[in-house]
Each structure stands twice: as C-alpha cells, then as structure tokens.
Design goal:
This protein has 115 residues and is an all-beta fold. Strands 2, 4, 5, 6, 9, 10 and 11 form a seven-stranded mixed sheet that branches. Strands 1-3-8-7 form a four-stranded antiparallel sheet, with no helix packed on it. A hairpin with a 2-residue loop joins strand 9 and strand 10. The radius of gyration is 13 Å and the shape is globular.
Length: 115
Amino acid sequence: QVQLVESGGGLVQAGGSLRLTCAASGINLDIYDTHWFRQTPGQERELVATLNNVETTYYAESVKGPFTIFRNKEKNMVNLQMTCLKPEDTGVYYCHSSAYGKFYWGQGTQVTVSS
C-alpha cells in the first residue's frame, strides 16, 4: 500500500522558518516527480514547488528564493524548507507524487504564519 505522509507544519511568526517532510512508503520517491501544493479555504490547490526524478526543481514565483525543495534518499523523503515566511504562505500543504500514470496525495499538514 502506498502512503505519503506530510509532517512539519505548525504555527510560526512572519519571518520564521519551517521544514515540511513528505515521507513515502510503498514507492521509491527517487523515480517519482514530487510536488508540494498548498490550499487555503475557498481556493484551488496551488503548486508551490516540484522536484522531479532527474533532480530538476521548479518553484512558484511567490516562493522563489525563500523555499527550497530537496530529497533525502536514505529516508525516502522529499522536504520543503521554507524561510522568510509570510502570512500569505498560510495554508494546508500537500505532498503529491506521480510517475508512470500513477499519482498519490498525502493528507496535508497545516502551516499558519502569523503577522
């Protein structure tokens, strides 16, 4: 059974940092494209960052610079390091992995940035 489990969310003041973790079981994230999305109430999920299977990264314009997506191969994880957080970064962050026509979502982790 495939599972993606996000962790690392929480409440942080503006300017602070958080590291989100997407831990996978049942699949090898090395061969998957893994994305972090975020969603706020009433809004569609927004793509924040991508790390693909050849280590190419993509970032939404709003997070370029402060956010970094990277892989922990030993632990089969993909992390999102978020710095210089702003209140507009608040939302539920979801991990999504896809490859070979298959795709999986995690349950999400809440990030709240207070002003």
